[in-house]
Prior knowledge:
Layout: H1 19-24, H2 29-34, H3 39-49, H4 61-66, E1 81-86, H5 96-102, H6 104-118, E2 122-127, H7 132-147, E3 163-168, H8 178-185, E4 209-213, H9 214-226, H10 228-233, E5 242-249, E6 255-260, H11 265-271, E7 281-285, E8 294-295, H12 305-310, E9 319-324, H13 329-343, H14 349-366, H15 372-385, H16 392-417
The chain binds flavin mononucleotide and iron/sulfur cluster.
Amino acid sequence: MPLTPVLTKRFGANQPWKIENYEALDGYNGLRKALTMSPDGIIAVVKDSTLRGRGGAGFPTGMKWQFIPQAKPGETAKPHYVVINADEGEPGTCRDLPLMMNDPHSMLEGIIIACYAVRARHAFVYIRGEAVHAIRRVTGAVREAYAKGYLGENVLGSGQAFDITVHAGAGAYICGEETALLDSLEGKRGQPRLKPPFPATNGLYDAPTVVNNVGTLASVPYIILGGAQWYKALGPEGSPGTSIYSLSGRIANPGQYEAPMGTTLRELLELAGGMSRGKELKFWTPGGSSTPMFTAEHLDVGLDFDAVVKAGSINGTSAVMVFDEGDCVVRATLKWIEFYEHESCGKCTPCREGNYWMAQILERIEHGHGTVEDIETLLDTAGNILGRAFCALGDGAASPVQSSIQYFRDEYLAHVEQHGCPFGTTRVLAGAH
Ligand SMILES: Cc1cc2nc3c(=O)[nH]c(=O)nc-3n(C[C@H](O)[C@H](O)[C@H](O)COP(=O)(O)O)c2cc1C
Ligand code: SF4
């Protein structure tokens, strides 16, 4: 499977983040074409392309845009907003930041097209606060776009007006959840809202709002220029287009690899030079730590929205974290659960308490104080979070616990029986605490 640069096609070019260089490589031609179309015509093309959101859930983008209620003749419409989720907090995920650093104008062009399609004037880009470099880069690109007439009043003589505001978050994983993000953008503490109502009707400032991921919107100019059929043909049915797979862990050449949706880990490993230290693959995540882990059995699963679900996990953010036979699955799971414990917003009991307890139990097993009952308690706790938490952060936290025990129960038992980690330095004397 070859690399298929679409979103990354300008990454190797000379300073592709500068507007002149972007324009020299087809930049803003998608917007020019879009402004000759009707807003509903654009929504129809995006729907026909079957583009699915890259933020994790894979929701069809055209359908989301169509949900924005439009005023009937004689009615005064509420303002509509487009909000870009550039929080990128899922462990292992690194594709929105490289996209914003290398090619911020492709995202801005997609945002302006989306604003035109859903009849919004104002868009907000919510970028994770720690990513100061990306905040600077996108702010600079917005300034360039105003100077060149792609933003502001009467864009390209179309009579349309568009504005983009860049907003720095404060660095909380939960603020990537779309409704927590909206609360945070409004200046409140970032915690998820009860759904329904959904952002399409009651979003930012209670007005109809589209929330989309960076990669979703950056795909839009290519779809407008290349057409829905071209885009669909890039990936398998139901999961069109390409994905930027972020490969990390025991990989010879970790990094971002853009390939058609449905590429397998075996193919990605070939592209990335194989495993890094001559050991066999042991376990890996198809879409970040919130997605149930896979093993060497799953090397040939097509990494797209449907095939991954069929194989027992979730495509998530295409964040492929790879571990080899020298890595301890209990330790990896402990580190992930410490992350969820820290990032739980505390609004609901199953996630707030459950992650605290799972971290305690994993810590004790990894450090040689665990019991066989602890493994059952872990499963019981994860089972009481899954489906009972207020938002998907809780469900995501159950994934590594349940899947690691499903595939590697013997390794958990070995920690208990050997009073410590068979891979590391945490072994203690039997009975010691
Ligand atoms: C805990 C949590 C964190 C999330 N973090 C992100 C994120 O950093 N970026 C993102 O685009 N979506 C994130 N999402 C998904 C968003 O809620 C939402 O589905 C997405 O922004 C919609 O955009 P899309 O339709 O373009 O995928 C997160 C969801 C949850 C539950
Ligand atoms: S599952 Fe509950 S406690 Fe956890 S982040 Fe979501 S709302 Fe907050």
